Structure formats: structure tokens, C-alpha cells
Amino acid sequence: MSTLTNNRLQALSTNVWLHFFQMGHFSSTGARPTVLVRGEGSRVWDQDGNEYIDGLSGLFAVNVGYGRREIVEAISAQLNDIAYVSPFSFPSLPLIDLSARLAAISPTGPRSRVFLTTGGSDAVETALKIAKAYQRRRGFADRSKIIARRVSYHGTSMGALSVNGVTSLRNGFGPLVPGARHVPLPYRYRCDYCALHSGCRGVCVDEVERLIEFEGPETIAAIIMEPVQNSGGAIVSPPGYLQHIRQICDHYGIVMVVDEVICGFGRVGDWFGSTAMGVTPDIITTAKAMTSGYAPLGAAIVRDTIANVFISDNDADKFMHGITFGGHAASCTAALVNLDIIEREHLLERSREMGAYLMRELEAAVGDHPNVGEVRGMGMFMAVELVRDRATRESLAEERLMVWLSEQLKQHGLICRADDRLEPVIQLAPPLILTREEADRCVRIVTEAVHALGRKLGSTPAVFAINPPTETKTAVAAD
Known about the structure:
The protein is α/β, with parallel strands linked by helices. The protein has 16 helices and 17 strands. It has helices at residues 6-14, 24-27, 57-60, 69-81, 93-105, 120-137, 158-163, 167-170, 203-215, 241-252, 273-277, 304-307, 329-344, 347-366, 401-410, 436-457; strands at residues 36-40, 43-46, 51-54, 113-117, 145-149, 180-183, 220-225, 228-229, 235-236, 255-259, 283-286, 298-302, 372-377, 382-386, 414-415, 417-419, 425-428. The two termini are 26 Å apart.
């Protein structure tokens, strides 16, 4: 077992800079970190030998689970053959094979072009540049604006950050890339337009069209949206929503980009959220579970009608964009084996079936709790929204509540996310191979955390407390 030596603790305090993390927590308080050193299936172990269920799949990535030796061996074999092939000059064999494989399963069609990157932010950056360049090739030089949804997360490189709908992430980095516009998200539970009505009235889609008309259709290059929005807590697009966005894009000549960085490769029960919801984008961005986290890789998958604008015998027509490690041969190899596993083990179907089971059990366990507003999600991607009062839907606003809630989860054996970028939620996105026993344990731990919240707020009498699992401790994932 790897150990966290004094030298490593010093390096952590002095040299390490984790992402979206306040490193002062280690340097000023001397807090001891949880360092994950081993994984197998849906479980991981820390430096002290404590076992956890990874209810977040790393960061929505490890869909086929940990310890897949065939992926590791395939990566090793590729590195032995040739470690690096420049995507600027030569295609590698794995890059060719993966591009064909992705086109075959993508709703953008079998003649799609695949631009491979290193991750999700790169994929979004690439898609936005393609959309703008495409509009210019069509003769629309003023089409530079991008429409995204409020509170949406699309990455942190400058272009992706600019279309981000999370205001706190954008602030402090201006001036950003100009032209980003944001529309309401279809947040049924707290919708300003129809939360109190019996069904969705589609007003949030109408707002997209109103914005286009206000800005001028001749200025809009693309719309980018997730099928199930992560930020805010697994917010599922209502039936017909994406189809209506598709119709709007077709009517006004706008490129439809669907961000599948989290939703792709089985997370919501199909190869892509677009497929599950029956819509055909112009560009799909994806990453994370394309390799199940075994190697860094992302992609912009582009319909041939868009890509063909850049394809000719004339060098002047090429897409002027490139990434040194985009489509790395070892990463493409990992992706190919990962896709084999998803197909062979029927993990798309398993995501739908186990996701439905987990949702039912969560709803039965905490759905009527005074501090639970809604249990929602799709496939193995779900959230429990927390409220001060279920009847009035009053929000929780206690300072550092997510830190406290994370500690509750930490005590009982589950890695998941307690997040409040919109309203406070507990998010679950475990590996698609999660067992029934592990799912039951996740529900028990979430239930105990919700009851602990109720006792803290005075909503849950002590008699409602359940006995927490005693066999493990837990950790909680940072952003």
C-alpha cells in the first residue's frame, strides 16, 4: 500500500495545486488529505486502506469501473509500438479506427468527421471554433455569438469559460471571448414559467427564440446545451425540448452543439444523450467516459454537412486548429477497448436498468423527507435536491452547508458530490457496473446524510435516524 510520507505531505502543502480547490486548507490547517491509491470495480481505497464506493465515477468518467486490465495492457502494447504520433502530420492507426467507431455510433451519422482533443474543454473550444469558422465559410461573417444556458458548465479554457453559465466561474477572468448569451434552463422543479403548472409549457424554449430575434439571427453562430445538465444537479431536458431547439437552429441557420462530455457513453442509458432523446446535433462534444478515465481524450464529432465545408484540395480551406496531444495513440487505444467493454457487457442497458432501480430506491427512502424537494435524473446520473421546507420549496442558504454535508457522507463510505452552484444537491453518478448491493449501500448512506441534515435543521426527529454502515469510512469529491 502506498503511504503518505512526511515528504509527500510537505510537497502537497508547498507544490501541489489541485483544480477548483483551496490549497490553503492543507497548508494553513494541516488537514490530512484523502489520497486514493487503488481501484477495483466500483470501489476505491485510500492510503490508509479505507474502502469507498465511488459514487461519482472519478468525475463522471470511470463508466466501466476500475481495474480493467485489458485497457491497461492495450495502452502498454500501443506505447511499445509507438509512443507518439503527431496529429498535425500523420494519422495513427488507433486514431483512424476510433474515428470510424465514433462516427458509427454517433447520431451525427456514419459520415461524421471526428476531431480528437485531450479533454472536454478542448472539445468545446474546438466545436465553437468550427461553428464560427463554418458560418464565415457560408458567408456570414457577423455570426459570432454563442447561446448557452444559465448555470451550465462547458469547461474553463477561455472560449468554453465564456459560454459557461456559472457566473462565479467567469468572474475575475475578463475580458472574456465576446458574444456569449445565456437563456433560462428547463429546470422543471423551480421553473419561473411553469413550476406550478401540471406540465411543461415550453416557455423556456420560446425564450431562446426571443433572444435570437432580439440579437438578430444573422449574429448567432451556435447554440450549445447538455441533454442532461450537470451543473444544478442532473437537470433533464423535458420531452420535445431538444427537438424544438433543433427546429429553431434549422430555421435560423444556427449550428446546434450538444455537449455530451458527461452524458456520453452510457451515462444516461445510451451511447449519447442525444440518441436517448431522439435529436440529431450538428456537433457533439465528448470526453471523460470515452476512455473511462484510463487516458485523457476528448472529441468534437461533426456532421458531414458541417465538416465538408473544410474539406477540399485547397490548403486554404483547412480548419486552422490543432492540439499537440489531441487523439494520442495510446488514448485512442484505450477508447477502443473501453467501447468494446461497454458493448460486450451491455452497459447501456445496465445503465438504464440499474439507474431506474437506484432512482426508485432513493425516491422510496428520502422522496417524502421534509428536506428533499425532488429526486431526478436519467440513467446512472441523478440528484437529490435539498430544501428547507418541502411544502414551500424554500431554499437552503446555510453557510458552508455543502462542506458539512460532505463530512456526513465522508463518515459512511461514499464518494459523491454535494454541490450548490444552483440549489443544494447530492449528486450520484456511479460506474455503470455498480452492483445491486452497492446501490443499496449508496441509498443507505444518502438516507443517513439526509436525516442528519433534517436533525441539524430541526426537520427530522431523532427517531427517524437509521443505523449507518460501520464497515467503511468515506470521502467526497471536489469539483
